[in-house]
Every structure is written in C-alpha cells, then in structure tokens.
Amino acid sequence: MIPTEPIWRSYIAETTQPIFSPKQCQMVIDKGMSLKSEDAKVGMGRKPGGGYDPDKRITTISWIPFKDMPEMYRDIEKTMLQANNNHFGFEGMQLTEPGQFTHYLTGGFYEWHMDNDVLGKHQPPVRKISMTLLLSDPSTFEGGELEFMSKGKTAKLEQGQAMFFASWLQHRVKPVIRGERSSLVMWFGGPSFT
Length: 194
Fold this sequence. Notes:
alpha+beta; Jelly Rolls; 8-stranded antiparallel β-sheet; 2 helices; 15 strands
C-alpha cells in the first residue's frame, strides 16, 4: 500500500481548541503532583538515563502510568492520530511511552533540544511526533513559551490546548519569569523511516 501525503503537510500542528477542560487539566496536575518527581535530565545519548545539567534544563518531571489515566491516554492518542492524518502522514503511528508531567517553577526552562535519539540507540519505535499540552491557566504565569528554532514559531497555547510537532524539530521552553507552568509532554512513534 502506498502511503498518501496529507494535503496540508506540515511538521507543527496546534489543536484549534483545547482538548482538555480546566477540570481535566487539574486532574492531570493533581495526578502528576502526587507521583514521585525527579529533577529532569538531558543527554540520553551521552550516558544511560542522561544527566542533570542546570545550564540546559531546570524542571521537575514525573511519569503518569498508563493504568492511572486510561481515558486521558485514549483521548490524546485519538487526537494524535487525527493530527497525523491531517498534517504529518507518518506510517504506523501509536502511543509508545507514558506521559511526562513537567512542572516549571519561576526560573525553570529547557534549552534548545530535539526529542528523538539522533543515533537511534534507544529506538525503535522511532519517536516521530511529540506533543506538549498546556495544563496551567496561562494567566497564572509569564514566560515559559514553547518556541521552535527552524520555524521561528512561539506557541501561545490556551489551557488544555496541545501542540503536536515532528520530534526532530529543535525547540525549547523559555524561562518562566513569574508563577508556575505545568504541561503534559508525550511522544508517539512507529517504524523507522525508510
């Protein structure tokens, strides 16, 4: 079967409206905050599990088990598949990793990075699509914007809105200058590109 290219091919796709209500966002925040958190690491390719580097990333993370929020995972996977069909056109896409709850305090940030393993040592499945879903009400913090290097695009998300993008795009989370920012980060993968 020959895959068909989406008519509106792009590598960044923002949902047109929030996919989670404020109540659903708070449920994810509550779950993320109830789990064991850790200082986020960087550099999976340098050593197993990466390393803590406060010059590149300051945030805490926790991992939400699939069994704890199955409806959330079902809704997100459905939205990702729609985004893939409409924008990306990648084959064999599926939910492959648990969601990462990220919590940035004032001063927290994540410097320029990609979400896939350039050397391919930790894949397959190959990370092809990444997602950031804003859980916080944007009126409760300043800064913390998701920014893309190659497109010069800065995401201005509403609470519950998501941005899907190709995992190889360089992106960053700019420093939070007031308040706290919580988001749900996920990755979706499939077979290697041929």
